[in-house]
Design goal:
five-stranded antiparallel beta sheet; four-stranded antiparallel beta sheet; 15 strands; 52% helix; globular
């Protein structure tokens, strides 16, 4: 009996502690702002409702003269009571003859009861202000100092209880140390993959729920002009042509410079397509068409939605980036604990910004980035796996697969693949030198052919495709874009170095007291006006795991690390910066461009962390090894939090997700409001 009680007691303590913690969090506003004062209800004069329009609207609650600690009200959409959308509410309070002071503000979902807490002595007038509304709605049942009721969030209670149980299980009797010590590579790999794929699935579902996830019938039922460039190009291929099946307006063709947006005003044209020799073309790569649109069409006789395509490539990244990190760990040539590799794999995935990019608005832009990242990670995995394989037939098959993955990435978005190209060239040179020393030159040429033939074929096909459309093998259509500026005027320039460093690496997040607390923002550097545009953005170092890029310094100065590994690190780091510099000068600033370098930066960070940990273990430097292990784990943990926070951003260039979800998340995290 005593033994049974002894085994049950920890569970009871965990449940009771979690319940107590949840009661404190759920009722924190009551504890913080005190009990209820005088209650005052305000019912609008017109049929018990008040209409809030799209423009900024105010609703005054006056003649109070008592302490106020909160306001509640009900909302419902004007056109459809079941519809839900976002608006922003601010509560302004005036005491005596003083000025109005903002007591609290919050982004809310229309369609329910909302309560906002604050503390104000002797409030004479309270004004509710509504702005940034996505629709008109009715406001009713406004109450100052609403009646307090006990709250309890069951989901948060379960999360707290599970977290407490996990911590207890790991701490008890040193079980956590034993688990880490006894963890096999396969177990570590499974845990890392489960964490990455599960997180990716959550954001995939949010993206699908927040946008039209239905497939499109083919032949197309609507006007071809209204579809994204991938569907338009698919349609062109089906019709045996390269140009989009839309005739440009004659007025557009007669312009002296149709690529100047000022001259195009008032003339209809396809936005951000290439115009050449009187035809519209898509300058977006064909990889999504070949790898998703055609297979989807052959199976379903319809075309996938943009959210479906993004989901497929995001899940590919969530699968192959962690697997690539495990293969890179073997390439270090050091003995590294599997749990450490798992931490590095998870850190790299969350630092890759895949979840953020997956939520990008104007989704066809983000399909290109996600597709390139997916095949970049597949390339890294297959190439590293090939180098870790001794059997020649398997090595050649893996290298051929890596070459094909590189080619598909190249045809998705070239810039993303520049760091991978740098890796490939460096490794070829290093292994050529090693093959000469080891007198295995025949094996080297076989491997180089297996890798190089698919890559060369992909590049040759790209050149042929370019020439057939634009009369030049090196013209991808970017000089003929109908976009926000004449892109032919933009070029690489040394003045862009400092802005590149700021925007692509160091630009900070914007912090606030509202969920999700940290978001990408618009920021401008004065005195530089050559970029196309500046939009919501963040630097790669906002994901703390990527700070491990600075580990390049100890890696490059460590005498026990081989020259080949040092060369690979230096070349990849340089290629990452070159990609950022090119994107900045030829494109501008927006977080999808950061997606060109974030996965490569994250993979390089993971590789250098594992390399240094393995080197410290080889030197029997226990203290340094511990510092590196736990510092890496801490950076991974903070990166997970930061990545999840920015990936829940609402508004701007992000696909909307259901307001009900946003409200539930606010209730989960903003316990003090």
């Amino acid at each position: 009996m005593k033994r049974r009680l002894k085994s049950i007691l920890p569970l009871l303590l965990i449940i009771l502690s979690a319940a107590a913690a949840e009661l404190l969090l759920a009722n924190f506003a009551f504890v913080l702002y005190g009990g209820n004062a005088a209650v005052r209800n305000f019912v609008p004069d017109v049929d018990n409702y008040y209409l809030v329009e799209r423009t900024d609207t105010q609703f005054s609650l006056g003649d109070l003269g008592f302490e106020a600690n909160g306001v509640s009200f009900q909302t419902r959409a004007k056109d459809d009571p079941s519809r839900s959308f976002f608006t922003t509410v601010g509560v302004y309070v005036r005491s005596g003859d003083g000025e109005f002071v903002e007591a609290v503000s919050k982004r809310i979902a229309v369609g329910g009861t909302e309560t906002l807490h604050f503390k104000m002595q002797n409030a004479d007038v309270i004004v509710l202000t509504f702005g940034n509304s996505e629709g008109e709605f009715y406001l009713s049942n406004a109450t100052v100092n609403p009646t307090y009721s006990l709250r309890f969030n069951a989901v948060r209670f379960i999360v707290i209880a599970l977290a407490a149980a996990l911590i207890f299980a790991l701490i008890k009797g040193g079980r956590g140390r034993r688990i880490r010590a006894e963890m096999t590579e396969e177990q570590a790999k499974s845990l890392a993959l489960a964490a990455c794929v599960a997180a990716c699935a959550v954001f995939s579902c949010l993206s699908v729920a927040g946008a039209d996830g239905s497939s499109a019938a083919y032949p197309l039922e609507g006007y071809i002009e209204n579809y994204n460039p991938y569907v338009q190009q698919f349609d062109a291929f089906q019709k045996g042509q390269l140009h989009i099946d839309v005739e440009p307006e004659q007025e557009l063709l007669e312009l002296a410079n149709p690529y100047d947006p000022a001259q195009r005003q008032g003339i209809y044209y396809l936005w951000d397509r290439a115009l050449y020799n009187g035809k519209y073309y898509s300058y977006f790569g064909v990889t999504p068409i070949l790898t998703v649109y055609y297979p989807f069409y052959l199976v379903t006789h319809s075309l996938p939605s943009e959210t479906t395509v993004k989901m497929i490539y995001s899940l590919m990244t969530a699968l192959f980036l962690p697997l690539a990190v495990f293969e890179l760990a073997k390439l270090t040539g050091k003995r590294i604990p599997p749990w450490t590799t798992a931490v590095a794999a998870v850190g790299a995935m969350f630092a890759s910004l895949t979840f953020l990019i997956q939520r990008g608005n104007a989704e066809f832009y983000y399909i290109a980035v996600l597709a390139a990242n997916a095949f970049l990670c597949l390339f890294l995995f297959l190439a590293a796996r090939a180098l870790n394989t001794s059997k020649m037939s398997a090595k050649l098959a893996l290298l051929a697969g890596a070459g094909l993955a590189f080619g598909l990435g190249f045809h998705a978005r070239i810039n993303t693949m520049l760091p991978a190209a740098a890796v490939a060239v460096t490794l070829v040179i290093v292994y050529f030198i090693r093959s000469i020393k080891e007198k295995k030159i025949g094996g080297f040429f076989a491997g180089a052919a297996a890798l190089g033939v698919p890559v060369a074929a992909a590049i040759a096909l790209s050149f042929a495709y370019n020439y057939a459309r634009f009369g030049s093998i090196l013209e991808f259509g970017t000089h003929y874009q109908l976009t926000v500026a004449d892109t032919s005027l933009y070029s690489l320039n040394l003045g862009g170095i400092v802005p590149t460093i700021y925007y692509y690496f160091f630009q900070p997040l914007e912090f606030s007291g509202d969920f999700p607390f940290a978001v990408p923002e618009w920021r401008h550097i004065e005195g530089y006006d050559r970029i196309l545009y500046v939009d919501q953005n963040l630097g790669v170092f906002t994901m703390p795991f990527n700070l491990l890029l600075f580990a390049a310094i100890p890696v490059l100065t460590n005498k026990k690390i081989s020259a080949g590994k040092k060369a690979a690190v230096a070349v990849v780091a340089a290629a990452i910066f070159a990609t950022a510099f090119s994107d900045f000068c030829l494109g501008g600033v927006i977080y999808r461009y950061i997606g060109d370098i974030a996965p490569s930066a994250a993979a390089l960070s993971a590789f250098m962390l594992l390399l240094l940990i393995g080197t410290a273990a080889e030197d029997s430097d226990v203290n340094l090894q511990k510092v590196l292990k736990y510092s890496g784990a801490a950076l991974c943990g903070v990166t997970v939090v930061a990545s999840l926070a920015v990936s829940f951003t609402v508004g701007g260039n992000f696909v909307k997700y259901p307001p009900e979800v946003y409200s539930a998340l606010c209730r989960f995290f903003e316990f003090w409001k």
